Each structure stands twice: as C-alpha cells, then as structure tokens.
UniProtKB/TrEMBL annotation:
It comes from Paenibacillus enshidis. Residues 60-273 form the SsuA/THI5-like domain. This is ABC transporter substrate-binding protein. The lineage of its organism: Bacteria, Bacillati, Bacillota, Bacilli, Bacillales. The keyword Signal applies. Residues 1-23 form the signal peptide.
Amino acid sequence: MFSLQKWGLGAVCCLLLILTACGGQSSAPQDTNASGPSGSGSTASGKLKDVKVVLDWTPNTNHTGLYVAKDQGYYEEAGLNVEIVQPGEGGADQMVASNAVPFGISYQESVTQARTQGVPLVSIAAVIQHNTSGFAAPVDRGIKSPKDFEGKKYGGWGSPVEEAVMKSIMELDGGDVSKVQNINMGDADYFTAVKRDIDFAWIFYAWTGIEAEQRGEQLDMLYVKDYSKSLDYYTPVIVTNEATLSSDPELVKAFMSATAKGYQYAIDQPEKAAEMLSKAVPELDKELVLASQQWLSPRYQDDAAQWGVQKAEVWKNYADWMYERKLLDKPLEAEKAFTNDFLPQDGKS
C-alpha cells in the first residue's frame, strides 16, 4: 500500500521544489491563527489551545503515538486541542517550514536537505530509533544481496538519493549500479508494480513488508542500515520550525510531553494502541494495523534511553554521506538540525 518512495523520497522531491519559496529565512512570520505557534497550553479562560500536526502521508503505524495521545486525553491534559491533518499539495515540510502549522512528520533526509538550503525545520524527536527501510523483492526474483540488483528492474521516483544509496551498498558487494534498470513507479503501489513491471523497490517493512506477510507473499528484504552505519538514519521524525522554538518553547514542551506519552503507551500496549488508530482511521485494514503495530512497537525506542532521543553522530554520519556523494550543496550543521531539549526529562512526561 505505502512504498518508501511515496512516504520519504517523494517528500524530499516535493521539498526541493519549495526551498526557493521559503527564501532560506531563519524564521517565518508569526501566524496569529489559533493553530499556529503563538501562545501555549490553556488560555486565560481555561480553554484548550488549538494546535495542528500534519502527517507526512496517509495515517499509519508510524503515527500511532499521536492518535493514542489524542484518544487518551494526553493532549487535553497538556492544555492542547490537537488536530491531526494530512499534508496539502506542498507537503508537510513546506507547511511546517512556512509556519502554517507548528508540528509535522518528516524524515532525517528531508530535514537535512532543507537545513542546507536555509529552510528552518528542526527535528524534535525520532519516531523510530533505527532505519526500518530497505530494498524488497519477491523471493522468485533471486535478490539475496545488493550485487543481485544487477540486471533487475528497480521501481522508484528517479531521485538522486535512491541511486546513491543503491550504488553505495552495491559497491560494497562488488556490484555495478549502472546495470540496474530504473523504472518510475508512478502511482502504483508496491504489489501492483512487482506484478507489472519491476523486480524490487525501496519500502518500509513495518507497513509494506507486514502487508506482504499477510498476503502470503514472501519477500527478500535488504535493510540499508545493515550495509552502512551512515544509512542508519532517523525516519520518520517529528519536526517544528525555528520560529515556534524561539517564540513558544512551552508549546513545544507541552506537545512533546503528551506525544511521548502516546508513543510510550504504544510501546507498552501495541494491541490497544492499534485499536485506537483503527478507531480514528476506520478505512485502514484493522488486521494490517494490528500486525504492523506489533512489529513496530518495540522498534520505536529500541536501544535508546527513552523514546524520541536523537544522536548528533547519526545526523552527522548521514549528512556527511550525502555531502560526499554531492547530494548536498554544503555540509550540514548537525547540532542545529535537531534537539532533544523538549523531550520529557528522564523519560517521564
């Protein structure tokens, strides 16, 4: 249903189109709308503050903590009335960077591109500690290692990042990326595309991989993090903009306190969390949501001290990798791209 190309690389491409429009400013004009970043917590009259958080794509288990926080009243306890919205034509990054909404779901690769172009996005939490994406192929295609990509048809979006990652891991295995045929998948989902005209694609296992399991379709999955430490980056992340951080840090703190509770609940009780997501988004396949949640919940925090924590070395390693491959115009100032300052102290909300 959802490929990484649609979730991640497509978002990067959309962001690149709006970089110039953002003008590279370090802050955006203040939005006086209630959903913007001015003012935090409850108002003087005791009313909840209206706040929007924009998703990167269609709701899925990457987002469960948001829905749990809303369902369980964690946002209300923090003085917030949070509305979870889907991105407009320009994408979530553009909406957050322009200060149209204070919070959104993005990706380390997208934030890295943005920061080096002067776009004021800042990551405030890693939704998942380790990269769960990779190249997936039906087992009958015989793709057991990156070298096996040779002579095969890859379905993607034509992004330079795709070819760079493929080239990087193929070279480690003695492969030649020029021997891979690239095909634009368009709007086709993974399962349609592999039956029609491709052999493999880049997916998030937590959704497309689990869906394959449910369909009884066996996959060979090559996780990119297994081939390079630099490719074990954060995807997805929760982002805000520099204007919100500077003008209303209490809002960010309140939002992250409640959101962290939501993800901790999803870690501790994946089945109940899956029910909440399915209740909020009834058009999703309930069995897929449950299976995906059971697979993903232990991976939200994984080996980190607490959910959401980000490491400077992860940001630097991936940005250096991108810069070395001419995917960035200049090196990233990693320490400005993310912050852990708004996560609950000592893991407590």
